[in-house]
Fold:
Amino acid sequence: MSNRYIFLYASAMVIIVALVLSGAATLLRPLQERNMRIEKMQNILSTINIPAPRGEAEELFDRYIIETKIVNYQGEEVEGDAFEVDLQDENRKDPSERDLPVFIAEVDGENYYIMPVRGGGLWGPIWGYISLESDLATIYGANFDHASETPGLGAEIADREFEEQFRGKRIFDEDSNFRSVRVVKGRAPEDDPHAVDGISGGTITSNGVQRMLRDGLGIYEPYFKKIRTS
Structure:
């Protein structure tokens, strides 16, 4: 068998495999995009304590999310589809140029405001959603996730036990100053409405969550204050 034959055969196989993989990726892309869309709906709904099985997520999202909008850094509403905003792309922009999504939910006659947040952990990006009560000062629910944090340590930001600590915490103080929420190494004071317990052995990830909330919610402050005084 000549080297020429081997080379041609190998080249043909590489081309065939590349075409098959490319075709499979093209065929699977709509399914992947739909799965990502459903997962995003599930995460948003989880902040208002609405369990959403995959087969029901779209129907439940349409039922409970009564309004979506995009605001700018001055709290003014701008054109666009809040669901399609990619926070990873927005965070690369100057704050004055960012599109800030807001999802407004209604549950049992009460309105809740849900905002996405994104930051950095120990090994990669972390992200999530925070819902606020109608006072736009009290956290109603939280949902966090990560790309590659350490299992049993930083990865625990996605555990329900960690997320539940944020419920009832406040991002404004009594004088209406933005305070966000601190993630305290060890145990947070029980009477501190602006602090939660950090993750044992996950200090860097805990600090990442703290910065993510401070920066991610802080940029909405003009919008929060505008709605609170309207």
Remarks:
- The radius of gyration is 22 Å.
- The chain has one domain: 65-228.
